[in-house]
Amino acid sequence: MRAVGLWLATAVAVAVAVAIVPGVAVVGGSGGLLVLAAVLAFVNSFVRPVMRLFALPLTVLTLGLFHFVVNALALELASYLALGLFGSGVVLASFGSALVASLVISLVSSVSEAVLGLR
């Protein structure tokens, strides 16, 4: 049940990012949000830890700021996979919009998970 709650919290966070961040658009309606949330959960579980490991020297060198770039790259990868595999998801106009969207998704999902008691 916790996994479903986390998935829905991520979908809500992606919807907020689509509404707030310019350059982020949904393909496939609300189903696209759910697909991207599922693919993003997969990327965050399996790919992002490897990305963080390889980016560790840069993260230490920039005092943790490079972690935001890793999050944006994970969002770009999840968007690419969702659109390529399922034909629905979120289109990101630029890396800047991916960076801002990843910040919004992180903040909103953290707050919603805390409110729902999932953390």
UniProtKB/TrEMBL annotation:
InterPro entries: Phage_holin_4_2. The chain crosses the membrane at residues 29-47, 54-74, 80-109. Keywords: Membrane, Transmembrane, Transmembrane helix. It holds the Pfam family Phage_holin_4_2. It comes from the Bacteria. This is Phage holin family protein.
